[in-house]
What does this fold into?
Amino acid sequence: MAAMNSCMKTLVLTLSACVLCAAAQAAPDVRLDDRGEQVVLNNGIIAATISKTSASVASLMFKGTELIAQSGRGPNVYFSMDGGANYRQPKGCVFTVKTANPEMVDMGCKRTWSNEPQAFDIEAHYVLHRGDSGLYVYVLLDHPAQYPATRYGEWRMVWRTPAEAEDWICVDPQRHWRMPDPADYKTAQKMGIKEIVKLTQGTRAGQFDCKYDFNASYYDIGCWGHAFARTRLGAWIVCGGYDFFNDGPSQQDLNAAAGINHIHFGMDHYAGSNVRVEKGEQWSKLFGPYLLYCNSAGDVAALWGDAQQRVQHEKAAWPYAWLTAVPEYPTAAARGGVSGRLVVRDAQKPQLTAANAWIGLAQPEAGGNWQDESKHYQYWTRVRADGSFVIPHVRPGSFTLYAFTTGAVGEFAKQDIKVSAGQTTPAGDLVWNVPHKGRITWEIGVPDRTAREFAHGGDYFHGYGWEMFAQQFSNPLEFTIGKSDPAKDWNYAHCGYGDKKLVPWKWRIHFKLDAAPRGDANLVLALASADGARLEVFVNDAAKPAATVTPAVQGGNALLRESIHAKYGVEQVSIPADTLHAGENTITLVQTGTKSFRQHVMYDYLCLEVP
It folds into this structure.
């Protein structure tokens, strides 16, 4: 059955490619029309008007309809870095043409650094193919060795979409709804958090609207955007490759929102890492190519389905054969790969396998981790059902191989994996023996680096939900092992308690032990997120905490930014043997941070291990 499914998938992708190929052969030539300050790329389907000096797209006509907002703060598609006093958009760019023939045009706009806060040259390219309904984009950041030390945090492209009635945002099965009409935003109530408004009229009256409603991992969703039901057109960002994104497959960021499509190359929200380059260091990185995809279909479902199918087409074509003579983007033949088999062994969970685990290659600094690595490229894939894997299309170099999977705390790592051009390095069997400090006596949750399985783990993407916690849960929160339901009785976020004035929130875990432990127990706290967090751990109502935990991995503001995870960390808490006894026991977790709802932990998984 698996082989049949694989064959069917290959057939579908092949047929899809053939359809695109046939359409291209019958389509008009691609034209480049130089109009002085602007240049127009046109293939009879797409007509993109690009500003030479700012590397921005002023107009994106698809089958005669404009898919860029022509009013408001900026009628264009643009790049930007950072914010506040360091905010930067490219300006004063020099226009070049890399390729221009009837099949494709590749044109670039380069801004050479001149005293901007970020000492990088920015070279943005737009590519249009014959018969295609999308505009490819790739952009190169370059820091020559003679440039001063520098850094960036936010680094993105923004596509302002038309203000249409019956506009749907499609991100995943949960975030797939009709957006407020333009008139609905005019009457919306401003809130204490500037990114959030409360709607007072229209299809979403009484609900909150915020750009953070749609946060997601780009690896998981592949594409995102807007489907306009009235015009039956779609405006999407589609990714075929992901190696240029920072911090690995679990990192998330903004994508679609009201009147906008984002793609964050430097995913700085949710504790994303920043790039810093020293004086004397030559560094460059290519972001993309990705696709600004336009489509037309009968309804929203068809538009969304077509965009998702285009993702599969782009993945199959990666790395793109049409992008040549760019050192930062080697051809397929100049790349390598790694193959092998991941074996996950857990004596206490014999059913655990490596199926569908994430496995990848990264190049963090010494002592670092892939979760906080943004200067280099990362390569991740899923492990097959039998544990085998192939990590393809890797630039040559030396890497650390990492793997993590649902059901296991922590991760596997193996250093000094060498990748050579034109070769697939055999890694053999990689055995991950999942460690424990004792016998698991109880568990809460599932180790998957999110708080998804807990209360509100499926509807976390609504503003101000945290103000309702005090109405929905008691203080202390009481959870009894074997009786309570994590999906109802364990909240996805542990913060201060209250709606406005916050007090410490006690979470009490009640459990039984058959006998008193003969040595210290170990409380495993796998954390999906922590920000400004400080936990006190009490055992059996002792007057003093047995331990105080300040999580080593913190930041990202995941609660107020409407997520169920930020950066993952694990804390091991020693519970003295003499504080536990046979029969009924209680461990109490107290979140002492009460200055604001920002201070929180989100538990991924908890367990008690007893010798």
Remarks:
- The chain has a mean pLDDT of 95.
- The domain at 332-433 is CATH 2.60.40.1120 (Immunoglobulin-like).
- The longest helix spans residues 2-25.
- DSSP finds six helices and 40 strands in the chain.
